[in-house]
Write a structure and sequence with these properties.
Number of strands of chain A: 9
Number of domains of chain A: 1
CATH class of chain A: Mainly Beta
Number of helices of chain A: 4
Number of helices of chain C: 15
CATH class of one domain in chain C: Alpha Beta
Oligomer: heterotrimer
Number of strands of chain C: 12
Helix content of chain C: 25-40%
Strand content of chain C: 5-15%
Structural class of chain C: alpha/beta
Order of helices and strands of chain A: EEEHEEEEEHHEH
CATH topology of one domain in chain C: Aspartate Aminotransferase, domain 2
Shape of chain C: globular
CATH superfamily of one domain in chain C: Type I PLP-dependent aspartate aminotransferase-like (Major domain)
Strand order of the largest sheet of chain A: 1-2-3-9-8-5
Structural class of chain A: alpha+beta
Strand order of the largest sheet of chain C: 1-7-6-5-4-2-3
CATH architecture of one domain in chain C: 3-Layer(aba) Sandwich
Chains: A alpha+beta, B alpha/beta, C alpha/beta
Helix content of chain A: 10-25%
Radius of gyration of chain A: 13 Å
C-alpha cells in the first residue's frame, strides 16, 4: 500500500525523489480521513516551496485541509488532472493523483522524513 | 401567554420528569451575582389588537398620501400581490437555511432559480444566493477582488452611492486596504476617465463604478473596463436600480457585478430589509462570498438541489473564510424571484420602458444639471438654488420632491436628485414642473 | 391511517424549474397605460440598450402561484412542527408581526423622506433600542447591523476604534474552540490575528488558559454565553476581570440570548459589547436564511464609536445625528433592517417584561426535559447543567456505524427537522438540540419517541439508518457531486439537444 521508496511526513504527505526532482502527494490515510475529495488547490508553476510550510489545500464537502511540503524547492509541474477529476485523489493517491513535481533545493531534507514502515507505525496500522 | 403552549400542570409534569419542583431550580446553578435582582423594566404584555393599533398610529406619523420622487438607492415600484402571497407561506417564512437538503428542496430550488435569473440579468456566469443589501455587497466584492488579484488598493468612483462608499470605507480601512476616490466629470456626471486612469496602478485590485450612477447617468462599461484591465485590476459594476437591467445592456466587461434588488418587490420599509447580490465569472467562483445552491442528484438519480462549495464559508474555514457572512436574505430573494417571474422577459422590459419614459417626461420639464443619457433618475437645479425651499413648496401640494444633494456633494448644494417610476402620474409631474418653474 | 404519530405519507406535487414552463408570449403582469409619451430606449445611448433578457422566464400568473406553492410543500418550517436546530432558536414567528411590518406608513417609508414625516418609524426604532438596552443591561444600542455576523463585525470594530483612540488597536482576538465560525472570521475581517483557546473538560472557558493567553497585545476575547454546549460560563465574571486587567475588551456573542432574557444581563456580568440576533431571540422569521437583524448593545465607554447616524431627541422630536467624530462609520446603508425591527418590537410588546422571563423559563424547561428523556439513549459529553439547549454526542451510535448526520437524516423520516449536526467542534459527532419555549409538551414527546426509535433501529439494523431518509420526495442528496462539478444555474438546452428531445 505505502511504497517503500517514498518518504512520508507527519502531516500525511509523501515525496518520491528521482534525479533531484521530488514528486509530492498525500497519503492514502489522508484521503481516507478527508472522505470524498471535491477540490484541490495547488500552487502556480515556479513557486518556491519551503519544507513544513503549507502550499495548497484539499477540500471535501465539509472540510478543508492544508497540504504541507515535505521538502523545499521550485514547482516544475502541477498535476492538471486534479482540476477536473479531484476524485482521483480518493482512488489513486500514491500514483496518478500526485500533486506537484518540485526541483529540490535541499535534497538532504528527505533524510529527516519517515520511511513507509515508520509511517505505518505512526498512523497505527 | 398566547405564544407559550403550556399549561401550568404540564409544566409541573415536565419538572417532575426532570426531578425538579419549581422552574427556579432550572437556573439555580447560575452564579448569584450574574442573576437579575429585579424584573425587567418593560411594560406588561399587550393584546394583538393593541399591537396593531400601536403600529397603525406610528405609521400615521409617517409620510402618507404624498406623491414621492425619492430614489437614491431606494425605489417605489408596484409590488405584485403574488410576492406577499408566496412569501407569507409558512413553509418559506418559517424555515431555516437549507442545510438539510432533503427537507428544504423548496427553498433550494427557488434559490437556484434566483441565481439563474440574476445571471441572465447581469450577463455573469454565477450569482450567489444574495447578500444583506447593495451597500454591503460592494465591500464584499472589493475584498473578493483583493483576494483574486493579491493586491490591496481599491478605486471607487465618487458618483457611486455615498452611503455605499461609507460602508466600503468601514469594511476596508481596518484590513489595511486603501480606498481612493476618482472624480466625476463636472459636465456629464459620469466617471472622469482621465482621473480614474490617474488613480489606477499596479496596486489596484478593483475599480468600482455604479451604473446608472448615483446621479442617474449611464456609465460606459467598455472604456472603464479598459482602464481597469490594462492595469491588471478587476472591474466591479454596481447597480442600485435593478429595474434598469430590463433595458440596459449588461456590463459583461465587468469581472464582478453587485447590487441591490430592493426594486424587485421589496417595500422601501425605511431602509431595509433588502437583498444584495454578487455575480461573477465562472473562474472566480471559489472566491465569491455567501451561500451558493447547486444542482445535483439524489441517491435514486432524481434531480435535487443543495448548498454547495461551503468550504469557502466561515463555518468551515473560520478565520480564513471568504467572509464572515452566514445568512443570506432568502425570503427577500424569494420575493424578488416571484417578482421576476410575474413580470418575466416582456414585463421587465415594459416596466423599465415606463420608468424611462416617466423620468424623461419629468426631466424634460426641469433644468437638468448633467448632460448624457439617464434611466429613471437625474439631477436638476432647484428653483432659486435652494432644494429645501423648493421642497417646502412641493409639500404644500402633497409632493415629496427630489433629494437635496448638498450633504453628499457640497458642490451640488443647489441641486436635487429626482426619481420617477411607473408609480408616478403625469398629473403629479405637471405640478412639480409648475412649482419648480 | 389514524391521526397518531407525527406524520402520514400523502401525495406531493411534482414541479419542474420555472424556465422549463416558459413559452414566448405568456405573461403574468399588466401595467397601466403609459400616461406620458413613450421614450425610445435609444436615448440610453449607442450600445446601451439591450435587446432582451435571454432565456428569462415567460409564464402566466396561474403558473407562478402553482410553481411556488408546490415548491413550498417541499419545505419544512416551524409552522409544521418542532425545528430543534441548536444555536438557531427556531421559535414560533407570531403572525401579527408580519401584519404590522406591512403597515402602510411604515412599509412605504423612504429612508430619505423628511424626518418630520418619519417620526413614527424613528419612535419604533427608539423604543426597540431602549428595550434591548434594558434586556442586555447595556447603555447604548445600535440597530444598524443586518445580521448576527454583521453585528459581530460592528462590535469588534467598536472595540478596535476604542483601543485606537487610546493609542493602540492591538493585534490579537482570542476565541474559544467552541465558538461559532463567524467569530474568527469576523476578527480576521476587522484586521485581527485569531488565537484559539482550548475549552476545559466542562466545555467551558478555563480562566487559567485565558490568563496565560491574555496580554497587552490582545484586543478582545469573544465569548458565547451560554456557550455552544448550552452551558452558562460559570466563571464569566472572572473571565471579564482577566481580560479587563490587561486592558482588553470582552465581546459576547448573543446567539444564545434566548436563555437569559429577563434572567441575567450581560451588562451586569461584565460584558462590554454584544450582539443579539433578533431573528432568534426576538422571533422574527428566518425565512429560509434571512433577513435577520443583529442589534449591537454596548457599555457607555463604547458609545462614542457607534455607527452613524444615531437617534437623538431634540425638542420632543426624533432626529438622526450624523456628526459623530469618533464613529466607526456606517456598516450598511440607511438605518438597519427596519422591517425586522418592527417585528421584534411587536414581539417584545406581546410578551412584555414578565412574559419575556416566562418565555426564558419555558425554553430552559423544554431543553432540560429533552435532556432528561434522551439521556438514557445518547451520550452526553458534558454533564454541566443545560440552559436552553443540550448537546449529545453520537459516540454510542457510532460504534454501530451510524453517525450524527445519519441520525439526523433518519429523523426527517419521522417528520422532524434535524438538530444541528457536527457543531460545536469540541464535541465529536455533536447533536445539538434547542427546542425553544414555543413547543408544546406533546410535540416534545413525539420527538423523544422518534429519537428513541432511531436509537433502537441503530441497535438492530444500523445499515437501514445509513440510507435514510426514505419518506421524503428526494432521497439522500449527493453533496459530493454538487461540489465536484458545480452547476449553479440553469442553462437553456442547446438547439441540437432540443431537436433530439
Amino acid at each position: 500500500m505505502y511504497p517503500e521508496n517514498y518518504a512520508y511526513t507527519k502531516e500525511h504527505e509523501w515525496v518520491s525523489v528521482e534525479d533531484g526532482v521530488g514528486t509530492i502527494g498525500i497519503t492514502d490515510h489522508a484521503q481516507k480521513e478527508l472522505g470524498d475529495i471535491v477540490y484541490v488547490d495547488l500552487p502556480k508553476l515556479g513557486m518556491a516551496l519551503t519544507s513544513h510550510a503549507t502550499f495548497g489545500s484539499v477540500e471535501s464537502v465539509k472540510a478543508v485541509s492544508d497540504i504541507y511540503s515535505p521538502i523545499s524547492g521550485e514547482v516544475l509541474e502541477v498535476n492538471t488532472l486534479l482540476a477536473t477529476a479531484p476524485e482521483k485523489l480518493n482512488e489513486d493517491p500514491h500514483g496518478e493523483a500526485w500533486l506537484v513535481k518540485v526541483k529540490l533545493s535541499a535534497p538532504d531534507e528527505v533524510k529527516s522524513l519517515m520511511s513507509a514502515a515508520d509511517y505505518l507505525k505512526y498512523i497505527g496500522e | 401567554m398566547r405564544y407559550l403552549p403550556k399549561s401550568d400542570s404540564e409544566r409541573q409534569e415536565m419538572l417532575a420528569v426532570i426531578g425538579m419542583k419549581s422552574l427556579d431550580e432550572l437556573h439555580a446553578h447560575l452564579p448569584a451575582d450574574a442573576v437579575m435582582k429585579r424584573p425587567l423594566d418593560l411594560a406588561p404584555g399587550v393584546s394583538e389588537y393593541e399591537i396593531v393599533d400601536f403600529f397603525k398610529a406610528r405609521g400615521a406619523e409617517c409620510a402618507s398620501g404624498y406623491a414621492s420622487f425619492l430614489g437614491a438607492g431606494v425605489y417605489a415600484h408596484y409590488r405584485p400581490v403574488m410576492c406577499d402571497v408566496i412569501a407569507s407561506r409558512g413553509e418559506f417564512l418559517t424555515s431555516y437555511t437549507p442545510y438539510q437538503a432533503e427537507m428544504a428542496q423548496g427553498t433550494l430550488m427557488t434559490i437556484f432559480e434566483f441565481q439563474t435569473m440574476i445571471c441572465q440579468l447581469t450577463g455573469m456566469d454565477v450569482a450567489n444566493a444574495s447578500m444583506y443589501d447593495g451597500s454591503t455587497a460592494v465591500p464584499e466584492a472589493a475584498m473578493m477582488a483583493c483576494r483574486i488579484t493579491g493586491r490591496d488598493k481599491v478605486v471607487v468612483a465618487r458618483n457611486v452611492h455615498p452611503e455605499y462608499r461609507q460602508v466600503l470605507d468601514t469594511y476596508l480601512k481596518r484590513q489595511g486596504l486603501p480606498v481612493e476616490t476618482a472624480a466625476y466629470d463636472a459636465k456629464r456626471g459620469t466617471v472622469d476617465l482621465d482621473d480614474l486612469a490617474r488613480h489606477v496602478d499596479g496596486h489596484t485590485a478593483a475599480v468600482i463604478v455604479q451604473s446608472p450612477n448615483f446621479f442617474g447617468g449611464i456609465e460606459h462599461a467598455a472604456a472603464i473596463a479598459e482602464i481597469a484591465h490594462k492595469a491588471g485590476a478587476l472591474l466591479i459594476w454596481v447597480f442600485t436600480e435593478a429595474v434598469s437591467l430590463g433595458l440596459l445592456e449588461p456590463a459583461t466587461e465587468a469581472d464582478i457585478v453587485c447590487g441591490e434588488l430592493q426594486s424587485f418587490a421589496i417595500s422601501p420599509s425605511y431602509g431595509g430589509p433588502y437583498a444584495g447580490v454578487i455575480a461573477t465569472k465562472e473562474k472566480f467562483i471559489r472566491q465569491i462570498p455567501g451561500r451558493l445552491v447547486g444542482e445535483t442528484r439524489d441517491a435514486d438519480g432524481r434531480r435535487a438541489f443543495c448548498l454547495t462549495l461551503s468550504t469557502r464559508e466561515q463555518h468551515i474555514r473560520r478565520e480564513k473564510a471568504t467572509s464572515n457572512i452566514c445568512t443570506n436574505q432568502a425570503l427577500i430573494a424569494l420575493m424578488a424571484t416571484v417578482f421576476m417571474s410575474v413580470y418575466g422577459k416582456q414585463g421587465l422590459r415594459e416596466l423599465a420602458t415606463q420608468n424611462l419614459s416617466k423620468a424623461h417626461y419629468l426631466g424634460s420639464r426641469l433644468p437638468l444639471r448633467f448632460e448624457g443619457p439617464f434611466f429613471n433618475e437625474f439631477v436638476a437645479k432647484a428653483k432659486g438654488g435652494s432644494p429645501a425651499a423648493q421642497n417646502a413648496l412641493l409639500r404644500e401640494r402633497k409632493i415629496l420632491g427630489g433629494i437635496p444633494l448638498g450633504d453628499f456633494y457640497p458642490e451640488l448644494a443647489d441641486c436635487a436628485l429626482w426619481c420617477a417610476t411607473e408609480m408616478n402620474k403625469k398629473t403629479e409631474m405637471d405640478v412639480v414642473a409648475e412649482v419648480c418653474a | 391511517m389514524s391521526g397518531t404519530g407525527k406524520t402520514v405519507q400523502v401525495l406531493n406535487q411534482n414541479e419542474g424549474l420555472l424556465f422549463e414552463q416558459s413559452s414566448p408570449g405568456k405573461i403574468g403582469y399588466q401595467l397601466p397605460p403609459l400616461d406620458v409619451p413613450e421614450v425610445d430606449p435609444k436615448v440610453l445611448g449607442a450600445g446601451n440598450a439591450r435587446a432582451g433578457i435571454e432565456d428569462f422566464p415567460e409564464v402566466s400568473e396561474v403558473e407562478v402561484i402553482r410553481h411556488f406553492t408546490r415548491l413550498s410543500t417541499w419545505n419544512y418550517g416551524i409552522d409544521l412542527g418542532l425545528f430543534p436546530l441548536g444555536s438557531c432558536t427556531m421559535k414560533y414567528n407570531p403572525r401579527v408581526n408580519e401584519l404590522v411590518a406591512r403597515t402602510e406608513g411604515l412599509a412605504w417609508a423612504h429612508p430619505y423622506q423628511p424626518e418630520d414625516l418619519s417620526q413614527g418609524a424613528m419612535e419604533i426604532t427608539a423604543q426597540l433600542e431602549r428595550a434591548i438596552g434594558e434586556i442586555t443591561g447595556m447603555e447604548s444600542v445600535t440597530l444598524q447591523p443586518a445580521a448576527g455576523a454583521h453585528g459581530e463585525m460592528t462590535g469588534i470594530l467598536l472595540i478596535r476604534s476604542y483601543l485606537e483612540k487610546q493609542g493602540n488597536p492591538r493585534k490579537i482576538v482570542l476565541v474559544p474552540d467552541s465558538a461559532h465560525g463567524t467569530n474568527p472570521a469576523t476578527a480576521a475581517m476587522v484586521g485581527y490575528e485569531v488565537r484559539t483557546l482550548k475549552s476545559n473538560d466542562k466545555g467551558m472557558v478555563d480562566p487559567s488558559t485565558l490568563e496565560a493567553a491574555m496580554s497587552e497585545d490582545v484586543a478582545a476575547f469573544m465569548v458565547t454565553n451560554p456557550n455552544t454546549v448550552g452551558v452558562f460560563e460559570e466563571n464569566i465574571a472572572q473571565i471579564a476581570a482577566i481580560v479587563h486587567a490587561k486592558g482588553g475588551q470582552v465581546y459576547m456573542d448573543g446567539a444564545n440570548m434566548n436563555a437569559l432574557v429577563g434572567l441575567a444581563r450581560p451588562g451586569d456580568f461584565g460584558m462590554d459589547v454584544m450582539h443579539l440576533n433578533l431573528h432568534k431571540t426576538m422571533s422574527t422569521p428566518h425565512g429560509g436564511g434571512g433577513p435577520g437583524a443583529g442589534a449591537v448593545a454596548a457599555r457607555a465607554h463604547l458609545e462614542p464609536f457607534m455607527p452613524t447616524p444615531r437617534l437623538k431627541q431634540v425638542n420632543g422630536s426624533w432626529t438622526w445625528d450624523y456628526s459623530r467624530p469618533d464613529t466607526i462609520g456606517k456598516v450598511r446603508a440607511f438605518y438597519g433592517n427596519f422591517g425586522v425591527l418592527v417585528r421584534a418590537l411587536s414581539y417584545i410588546m406581546a410578551h412584555g417584561g414578565p412574559g419575556l422571563r416566562t418565555a426564558t423559563m419555558d425554553a430552559l424547561l423544554n431543553a432540560n426535559y429533552l435532556r432528561k428523556r434522551l439521556e438514557p439513549y445518547f451520550d452526553l459529553p458534558y454533564q454541566s447543567p443545560s440552559m436552553h439547549e443540550v448537546v449529545f454526542s453520537h459516540s454510542r451510535q457510532e460504534k454501530k456505524g451510524a453517525k450524527t448526520m445519519d441520525i439526523a437524516k433518519r429523523l426527517i423520516d419521522y417528520g422532524f427537522h434535524p438538530y444541528t449536526t457536527a457543531f460545536p467542534m469540541i464535541v465529536p459527532g455533536a447533536m445539538m438540540i434547542e427546542p425553544t419555549e414555543t413547543e408544546p409538551k406533546q410535540e416534545l414527546d413525539l420527538f423523544v419517541d422518534a429519537m428513541v426509535a432511531i436509537a433502537k433501529e441503530i441497535e438492530t439494523d444500523p445499515a437501514f439508518v445509513l440510507k435514510a431518509p426514505y419518506n421524503t420526495r428526494v432521497s439522500r442528496v449527493d453533496e459530493t457531486m454538487a461540489a465536484r462539478k458545480p452547476i449553479l444555474r440553469w442553462r437553456a438546452p442547446s438547439p441540437q439537444s432540443r431537436a433530439a428531445d
